Amino acid sequence: MSTPDQQAQLLFPPNVQYNASRIYSIKFLSSCFAGAVAGVLGLENSLGFALFILATLLTSACLYVKCKGRPAKYIPGGWWELVNPGQENISSFILVWTLFYGIVHVYD
Amino acid sequence: MSSNAVSLYLDPQIRDWVLFPITVVMILVGILRHYVVLLLQSAPKKLPRAAIREQRALMRSNILRASSANSPLPPSFYQSISQHLSQAFAAGTFLKDGPPKSDAPTTPANPLSDPSQMDGMMAGMKTQMVMMVPQMVIMGWINFFFQGFVLIKLPFPLTLGFKSMLQRGVETPDMDVRWVSSLSWYFLNFFGLNGLYRLILGNDNSADSSRDMTTPFAAAAVAPQGPQAQDYNKLFKAERDNLEFAEGLYSWVGKDIETTVLKKYGRLPDSQ
């Protein structure tokens, strides 16, 4: 069972959809919290983005453990799907980061 | 040369009266947009049974073919379904208007003249309009009321090229690009709130701004009406060939299963 087609055939579509939406919510919440942490700590420039990458890796590590080490069984696309935060979450991170940075450090 | 040590002091009232209200308004308008689109959608038109059968027939054969190389169906089932579909496609029994009269030229229906498809296209355009209008209104509102002052400092640097866009009302050539006006806060919200909408409103929400930008007018309208404009007769003929091809590839997962099971438990004598 090595070709991607055959692997995709083994996955049950409603379950895959459920998994995908759960994973999306988890990624979104983790990027929001990462943004809040970065903002409150006052991280700038590359430090902030480094925190985002760190948070992404931490989240994907947790998801990997949840998948019992076999991500191919739960979502099509294997481990890259787990790690990839997606463009929307990057923008959410930047939004929340700017918001908290502004609240804590810019305003008196 | 702006020194990094000096920072502007902003009045906290700006935070209370501009920062939070813009965000709250955008969230609420997004939710409103979602519900307005929901209310504006007309109920899907009911197709007659023959038309649905025509559309589904292709799907049935696709599903059959998709798993043919490792098929869960035993040979008798697979062959009989495959042959039944093949004959039906050849004779045109699934076609909406019955088997084709032999010499009549079959022309696909013109999408613009078919009234059922016009409804679909209008619905697509209506939703596009509903999506655009609130964005324009909010941009105008922000430009009118919240213009001329610096709102927030971005935690990351940007090039000077962004200065004209992000510091719209503030005419200072020397200020760091990181101090931005309210319009750029609008843009940040515009891009960043999609995830929140997906969380609150569920996956298929209409408040998603990323959808606005990726669907040109045609794409949204084509999806439900595409099949009706195509000539099903030709599609069925092509599908017959595909079915034959798949039959050549067909192999049952349970083939020789007795041997496999016996071998797995080591009960097979070594006389092979």
From TrEMBL, chain A:
GO terms for biological process: autophagosome assembly; protein folding in endoplasmic reticulum. It is a multi-pass membrane protein. It comes from the Eukaryota. Pfam families: EMC6. GO terms for cellular component: EMC complex. The keyword Transmembrane applies. The chain crosses the membrane at residues 21-41, 47-65. The keyword Membrane applies. Keywords: Endoplasmic reticulum, Membrane, Transmembrane, Transmembrane helix. It is found in: Endoplasmic reticulum membrane. PANTHER family: ER MEMBRANE PROTEIN COMPLEX SUBUNIT 6. Belongs to the EMC6 family. This is ER membrane protein complex subunit 6. It comes from Rhodofomes roseus.
TrEMBL record, chain B:
The chain crosses the membrane at residues 17-40, 130-152, 183-201. It is a multi-pass membrane protein. One of its GO terms (cellular component) is EMC complex. The keyword Disulfide bond does not apply. InterPro entries: EMC3, EMC3/TMCO1. It is found in: Membrane. Its main location: membrane. SMART domains: DUF106. Pfam families: EMC3_TMCO1. One of its GO terms (biological process) is protein folding in endoplasmic reticulum. Keywords: Membrane, Transmembrane, Transmembrane helix. Belongs to the EMC3 family. The EMC seems to be required for efficient folding of proteins in the endoplasmic reticulum (ER). This is ER membrane protein complex subunit 3. It comes from Rhodofomes roseus.
